[in-house]
Amino acid sequence: MFVKRILPAPQNQMSSIANFYILPEAGRGKFADAQRNQKTVTYKRGLFSTKEIVTGDRFLWEYLDSATTGKTEFSGFAFIDYLLTFVAASLPEDFKIALRSAVVDDHYFAFSTDLASKFAEYLRSHPPDANALQAFVAEGNADEEYVGTLRETHDFLVSWFESIDRNSFGVIHITF
Fold it and tell me: Residue 47 to residues 44, 50, 52, 68: CA-CA distances in angstroms?
């Protein structure tokens, strides 16, 4: 297993990390079980105290860390800003539907080999337009250097999607 930190979060925002996992396709059922039985912590207020209620075996990220064949850490804000905001705004409808179908819950996405291949090809054939990217960054009041960060995010996503081969699937976990 390897961990590689690519980009820091923009300086004017809180920390967010996106963990990109590659898992063996043969373990897809185990992933579904881990997701279904993941640990949750809730709090129930009583008259005089608050009680912590814990269900499940372990957090899904703990399962992913133990089952992955490859893990990369990346700026969560750059991922969100680039793919889920900038690119998503101009995706064809079938890609928007495909992206929504990859959502596991509020913090996780799962990409099959075929879906990853389609996104890699789409991103490769649709590099970010320089003017549109600069306008997007200016609209968000980010530093001009964030344009370069988003270009690197594009390149990273193409590479990561391409790395999901026939014997694997990919999972993205976003933390805040």
Answer: 10, 8, 14, 44
